[in-house]
């Protein structure tokens, strides 16, 4: 599933393919990704316009198209790819933006993605609600620590909250907690300042490593059949921990599965809890 690194790769590719180029034709059939917006009006508003910017925040992308923003969320299976102008439509093609020498297509088999057009001065509410983006804004350990002190949720749940940190999903949260040696069920408010700093570093390193592993013109998500797994512990239950060799376990929290190393990521024991 696309999270911050995969969406960042999409943004970099779209910038290379589209920035400064005129959209000579837009084709967007009516599907669920438009949430009822009129497809012909959308096509008309994009055709003949120049792409002036490509931005990303959390798991959202947006293309500046003259006085509008075209927002794109990849949902669970969405991806932007580049094709030749004369290549036929893919079975799961949901949008197509043609520029002079290429055709940029949005593919989304499961249709959980979104495509929304808004005037520049009417920023999308989902975009505005996003918390700190680890790449765009950077993460501040003191500010994050203060936020964690105010919640009764587990650290894993907080990491998935897009209004706290934008772009971290189940994969990056699992990887970051393993790197920080923190149990996902720990209460967020119980983390010490040193643990929050470790967590920030874990998030930053996990994102940087995923970007380095996956960057390229055409991405394959880890859930796709036959896809490689570039992650340390995500979807590796039963395999040895890359750090200590203990068998990786899987737990379920609020319906989401997390893998963890029981040795590297101990639950705080009685001793830890009785400390002031
Ligand atoms: Zn371990």
Features:
4-stranded antiparallel sheet, 276 residues, disordered C terminus, alpha+beta, binds zinc ion
Q: What is this entry, summarized?
A:
The chain is of the alpha+beta class.
Chain-averaged pLDDT? 95
Structural class designation: alpha+beta
Secondary structure tally: strands: 10
Number of helices: 8
Encode the helix/strand succession as letters. HEHEEEEEEEHHHHHEEH
Largest sheet: 4 strands, antiparallel
| Share of β-strand residues | 15-25%
Q: Rg from C-alpha positions?
A: 20 Å
Distance between the termini: 40 Å
Q: Give the proportion of residues in helices.
A: 25-40%
Q: Show unreliable segments.
A: 269-276
Strand order of the main beta sheet, please? 1-6-7-5
Describe it for me?
This protein has 276 residues and is of the alpha+beta class. Helix content is 29%, strand content 20%. It has 8 helices and 10 strands. It has helices at 4-18, 39-46, 125-128, 141-149, 155-160, 170-180, 193-214, 270-274, and strands at 25-27, 51-57, 60-65, 68-73, 79-83, 93-98, 103-107, 114-119, 249-253, 256-260. The strands form 3 sheets. A 4-stranded antiparallel β-sheet has the order 1-6-7-5. The chain has a 4-stranded antiparallel β-sheet with strand order 2-3-4-8, covered by helices on one side. The chain has a two-stranded antiparallel ribbon with strand order 9-10. A hairpin with a 2-residue loop joins β9 (249-253) and β10. The longest helix has 22 residues, at 193-214. It is globular, with a radius of gyration of 20 Å. Residues 269-276 have low confidence and may be disordered. It binds zinc ion. The site of zinc ion has 7 residues, from loops.
């Amino acid at each position: 599933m696309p999270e911050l690194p995969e969406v960042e790769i999409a943004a970099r590719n779209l910038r290379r393919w589209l920035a400064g180029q005129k959209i000579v034709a837009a084709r967007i059939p009516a599907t669920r990704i438009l949430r009822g917006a009129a497809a012909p009006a959308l096509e008309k508003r994009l055709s003949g316009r120049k792409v002036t910017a490509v931005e990303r925040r959390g798991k959202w992308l947006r293309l500046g198209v003259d006085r509008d923003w075209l927002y794109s969320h990849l949902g669970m299976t969405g991806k932007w790819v580049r094709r030749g102008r004369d290549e036929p439509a893919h079975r799961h093609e949901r949008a197509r933006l043609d520029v002079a020498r290429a055709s940029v297509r949005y593919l989304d088999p499961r249709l959980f993605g979104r495509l929304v057009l808004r005037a520049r001065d009417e920023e999308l509410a989902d975009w505005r609600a996003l918390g700190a983006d680890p790449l765009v804004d950077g993460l501040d350990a003191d500010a994050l620590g203060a936020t964690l002190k105010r919640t009764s949720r587990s650290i894993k749940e907080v990491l998935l909250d897009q209004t706290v940190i934008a772009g971290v999903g189940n994969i990056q949260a699992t990887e970051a907690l393993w790197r920080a040696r923190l149990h996902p069920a720990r209460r967020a408010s119980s983390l010490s300042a040193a643990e929050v700093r470790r967590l920030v570093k874990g998030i930053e390193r996990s994102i940087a490593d995923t970007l380095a592993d996956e960057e390229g013109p055409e991405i394959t998500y880890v859930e796709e059949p036959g896809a490689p797994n570039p992650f340390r512990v995500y979807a590796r239950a039963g395999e040895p921990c890359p750090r200590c060799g203990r068998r990786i376990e899987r737990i379920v929290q609020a319906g989401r599965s997390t893998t963890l190393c029981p040795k590297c990521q101990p639950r705080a024991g009685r001793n830890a809890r009785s400390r002031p």
